[in-house]
Amino acid sequence: MTPNPRVVQAFRSMKEIGISDEKVKPVLKKLLKLYDRNWELIESENYRILADAIFEEEDSKQEESFDEEGSMTDELLRPLKRTRLKTQEGLASSSHPIDSSNVAETILKELKVEDELIPRSLQQKSLESNVVNMRTEIQPASPQLQPPSPVPVLSDHSGRDKGKQKVQTRPNYKGKEPMSPHVASKGTGPENVSVALRIKDPAPEPIEIAGASASASVSERHTSCELATDPDEIPSELEIASSPLGEMQISEGNEMLALDALKKSPARDACDVENVEGNGCVVARLLNGSFNNHCSANGFVGNAEGEELVVSPQRHLTPKELRCLHDASDITKGEENVEISWMKDVVLHVSEIVSCPRSLVRVLVKLGEILLIPRQVFLTPDGRGWGLRTLEKLPKGSFVCEFVGEILTISELYARNREKHTSPVLLDAYWGLKGVPKDEEALCLDATCYGNVARFINHRCLDANLIEIPVEVETPDLHYYHFAFFTTRDVNPLEELTWDYGIDFDDLDHPVKTFQCRCGSKFCRNMKRSTRSKFATR
Ligand SMILES: C[S@@+](CC[C@H](N)C(=O)[O-])C[C@H]1O[C@@H](n2cnc3c(N)ncnc32)[C@H](O)[C@@H]1O
């Protein structure tokens, strides 16, 4: 039997950095199971997840053995830390031809690994060639409910000096790398260029508190929210503001709909589409409180460039429909009255982005938002403050929402947040390619004051159910991108939506301590560290 080259390569890469096959084998097996044989994920960033998991496994073993012995010093752990750094360096430069080995053959038998196709959604290649265009309307923070915390952490600045702006050093990652810009905008051409990023005039983000929670005053809610992110200090008012079943409702755009109303609302049947001058691309947008009846009639009707596209989202597309959508790529130019009557509604699956023409993807992504997948902000019962959950089952690959925030330079972000742990969600599309960007130049998102529901997405180490996908923004220099969140697996109704912020909980050099992670994941990076710190000598 021919060994699976992916298994072989995984072993080879690990060997390169001094990890024996025996250590790789069980962990690889677990990861394949955990990620549903999503090889792309395991292979991404030069097998970083695999290497990390192996080290984590080693950490756990060591901790267990030290637990038994009743003693442990940080010194004993440092070599691991160094190895890990070395790992990253080593991995970054490793690139080897695929080759077979006896070990791989054995493993292959054991793992019964098939060389199956993984969802394209997570393939970097697909991202490169199918970057989504979107327009963003930044909504200001609600005065009623404003998350006090900075944007979810993606990176950490160990070299940062509180007092002065410093040149950014490459963030110190352990959990994962920030979104690498190289997946964002390479290969996209000026044909898509138009300036679409805009910041709207401040107007309260529509956040509604339904049911009992409606009785909470604005100031109560504000205070509650401010306190809510300190896991140890959740005020009792929060129980009024939102029960664990979550009376609080959030909706986006110009529509504000309570849950029941939302489910029945024509907003789910119809939306309108706005043309973008210049390149004939279209962007769908909910009309302000009024819905076009004709929208729901035929599903998706596309006209010639510059004319209207009408979409009525109601359900997920079948693969066949997506193929049709792909075939209908001429819908964007020149064709008149192209009608896709089979499409009653759309929820974009990231795996299908690859098969959609760019302009339709743009529409679809926007529709994902317009769909108003019933989401709910709720109070987490375990001290993580507010969280976001879905009220409906979401198939793997569903678009959930974009991460919206103010665009700042990293310097500006740090100037704003001198006292709290802050790390930027980087937007510089060339980050990592052109070396380390300077704090004064590199752009990031800050959702503290202006944002959307994504602000309520809590962190979960490694096995979060959301993944962030960089989305190209139409700027001439392709310098920025947005983040769109998609589900990494099927998500059940009432399940919390989580995202791995990529925090390095080990970064002791950061001037401000991050929160203590309560994600509950068996891969939690922080729990291990905190357990470990009990044994540390310093
Ligand atoms: C972007 S906010 C998420 C919403 C937040 N829970 C709230 O109530 O506004 C990030 C903050 O949520 C809290 N948080 C998120 N994930 C957490 C986790 N796994 N464990 C503990 N706290 C968490 C931390 O206070 C963090 O600074």
From TrEMBL:
Ranges where the record places region Disordered: 140-190
InterPro entries for this protein: SET_dom, SET_dom_sf, WIYLD_dom_sf, WIYLD_domain
One Pfam family named in its UniProt record: SET
Classification via SUPFAM superfamilies: SET domain
GO BP term, example: methylation
One term of GO molecular function: methyltransferase activity
Domain SET: 373-502
Domain of life: Eukaryota
Designated name of the protein: Histone-lysine N-methyltransferase SUVR4
Top-level taxonomy: Eukaryota, Viridiplantae, Streptophyta, Embryophyta, Tracheophyta
